[in-house]
Amino acid sequence: MQRMFQSATLKLTAWYLAILMAISITFSIVIYQLNYREVSNRLENLQHSLIDDLNGPVPFIYLNSFNDRDDSRVNSESRKASTQMILSLVYINIVVFIAGGLGAFFLARRTLRPIAEAHESQSRFTSDASHELRTPLSAMKTELEVNLRDPKLSIEESRELLESNLEEVNKLIKLSEMLLHLSRLDHDKLEFDTVDLPVLLTETIKRYPKDKKRFDITARKKATTQANEASVSELMNILIENALKYSPLATPIKIRIFEQRGRVGFEISNQGERIPEEKLSKLFERFYRADASRTHSSQNGYGLGLSIAQKIIEVHHGELTVSSSDEATVFTFYLPIIKKISSKAQN
Questions:
Q1: What CATH superfamily is the domain 193-346?
Q2: CA angle 302-306-308, nearest 5°?
């Protein structure tokens, strides 16, 4: 695959360079023609002015001799000027060819880089998705094969087998829903409306009645933004689930809603293991997990939640940040305050 993009880069470089050289050579020919005519006209004018100065007392025979020598000199100077201009233009075109080749190669790489990155991301996404799908399918197949070979399989064991397979099927359904959600965020246009984050947070928290006592919430009475309510609710849900999943039981989950520099912010922090600095920037990649373990993780999940969160923020033209220390891991997202959006719309 890398060879393919290298070949494409060289081909695109050649095309860029061919276009550049065609333009350069065309301009060189035009410049040569214009300058050659200008030099010839000036030499002829100089010759005529010298002849006019000698027209008085000089005998005709000497005048003809002078004209012959002058014509020869004019032609010689014209040829010299022509040769000098051609050499200068050749040198200029050589410089253009070398500099243009380097510039064309740089431009070709820059042009193809997003395509290469998208292709690499798609390949990695396909590979990771296949890996995640293969794991539960393999588990289901193995369980079915082992139990079908057992002639003494009881009804109770059959029930356990079906329940286990149902659990794996539910995992596959959840994975497919998350993949479809990502696909919709990539292509669908969401409808925006006025959203009050404190009110939306109150509704979202109701999904976690067992963990209600763990939440320590500090919020403004009102903090509105222009957004898709379902998507922002999903964003809060992802960050809350992530905080609950990766923090010790009974430790507090601190949530804060605030306004800062024309933006409304949502901050959630949890205690737990510190995430290394080199892994923080990769948290929002699809299928990435900070523990680098997928099949044997003690935590359920596919590494898609934070990718969806990042995509939701991108759709809303906001910002999502993360920091981690020995004390806490903090996720914060920012969305424009509705007042700012309204004032821009009026302008």
A1: Histidine kinase-like ATPase, C-terminal domain (3.30.565.10)
A2: 90
